[in-house]
Amino acid sequence: MGQTPLLTFTDRGIHCPAGDFYIDPWRPVARAVITHAHSDHARPGHGAYLATPGTATVMRHRLGPIRVDCAGYGEAVTINGVTVSFHPAGHVPGSAQVRVEHGGEVWVVSGDYKTAPDGLSEPFEPIRCHAFISECTFGLPVFRWEPNTLVMARINRWWAENAAAGRVSVIGAYALGKAQRVLAGLDPSIGPIVAHGAVEAVNVALRGVGYALPPTARLADTTGADLRRALVLAPPGAVGSTWARRLGEMAEASASGWMAIRGIRRRRGLGTGFVISDHADFVGLTDAIRATGADRVFVTHGYTGPFRRWLEDQGYQAGVVETEFAGEEADVGADQGPDQAGDHALPTEPDAEGGAIRE
Q: What DSSP line would sit under 9-57, residue for residue?
């Protein structure tokens, strides 16, 4: 009989048999270790939660009264003899990779991550390990992000042009993570920054644990010339809704990694799409995996088939993990308030071919 792996993959989620806890489980369990507060990773119904303070505050906002213990980055917690610690994932404020150590073996569950700094989230920290569980949402070479500063400069120019023409600027961005990332890079000298209620609720929660976000105004308090110069941050589902129509003449845009694919912009009817993602691009994924020094890599939610083949071509022992981590359809833009999952769902767009991966 072989030794039981440190982490196993079950119908409830990623399980540590030695410690008897789960990481980001999608069905109710007694003890859940949570990487971040998006709804596909932090679900209701668990007996006890362990998370970073930033993740815990948003979970309490989303899930109500829950039993949640907090651990800071790098702080070791022992669960039934297994050592667990959180390390920055760079995905959204408070997001973490989970390092699990027992019997001289180390596994790391990345959750969702990005390796490029965004000026708000805690920067990604590569962790040495024997086995690494990695997302690959954007695991094709076609996905390569520009620096955050360049994208934000483009957004500010677009806003300034609209303000000069007397048009309200509306950006659809996920209420947890993406909206705050855009907010942190805006130039408030252009005009007022207005946050949809779902976005502002997350802003308040994050400000409460020390994240420095620029001030935002309420729509009810912004009228006339001020509104025509404003930039409005709203969840994707609110753009084009009855709520948005009361803004008057407007210019709409979407902030998403999927904006790299022209067909999605066409289907959404958006003339403007800003390519900005809270997930690693192809280069970020491959660099992160190399930095772990892991021999075994398991990939989940994304272009798992071609990315696994690339890993095997590079000499890794690679596998695909089936999970229930999933976000809104990229070309629909449905939104569920502050607890949406982000950019996960794959588009059915032929521009992003699923063929062999080559650097």
A: E-SSSEEETTTTEEES-SS--SEEE-S--STTTS-S--SEEEE-HHHHH
